[in-house]
Amino acid sequence: TPEWLDLLGSLGLITEVNGDMILRSARSIAKDGSSDSTNVMKAEYFVNYLWTNFAEFWSRDLCEKLSKLRFVPVRSAKSYSEDCVQQVEFRMYKDCSVPNDGDIVFHVRPILRDTHVPPHIAWDHLGLKTPPPTRDVLRHVDALTKCPVDRWNWQNSLVKTFQSIFAYLQKEWNDLSSSQQRHLRSLRLIP
After folding, report:
1. Which single residue of 56, 135, 140, 160 has CA 20 to 30 Å from 151?
2. Comparing C-alpha atoms, which of 166, 156, 97, 157 is closest to residue 127?
3. Are 116 and 48 in contact (CB under 8 A)?
């Protein structure tokens, strides 16, 4: 209520969230960096709040400052290829991929949750790109060819995942170097 905000203000406490408060919160999460449940919950709440209330805070400068901070909670890409529990780590947006690109890079790049994807207008300023770099897609394809089918743990089926990869490769084929094309031809890519 306005009365409580006045009381908090008179005590010297923060009564409104602004760009500086957003940066302080992101820095606090990045500085802690631990994957304990408290910090992960704090980060999840913060990122959800940030993008839900984006219009109140938007500025190019704020996004560029946020782009340098590891405050985004994501499932580690390593957790798809190792026998381990789902590891949460904190990454910068430029290190992540959007969910629609998950099939083509999940072994090598963390995938954002739907609720952690910022509005498109902020992507360039945060360093978020789609599609991901071709080198990452190729590293992912290499990793998939070494992954035993009986240990598949991605959210989409093996068939759907490879359909996404083939669609990407077909679109980008002419832009691949001849050595990249030769390497792909040498792989066992039919699941």
Report:
1. 135
2. 97
3. yes
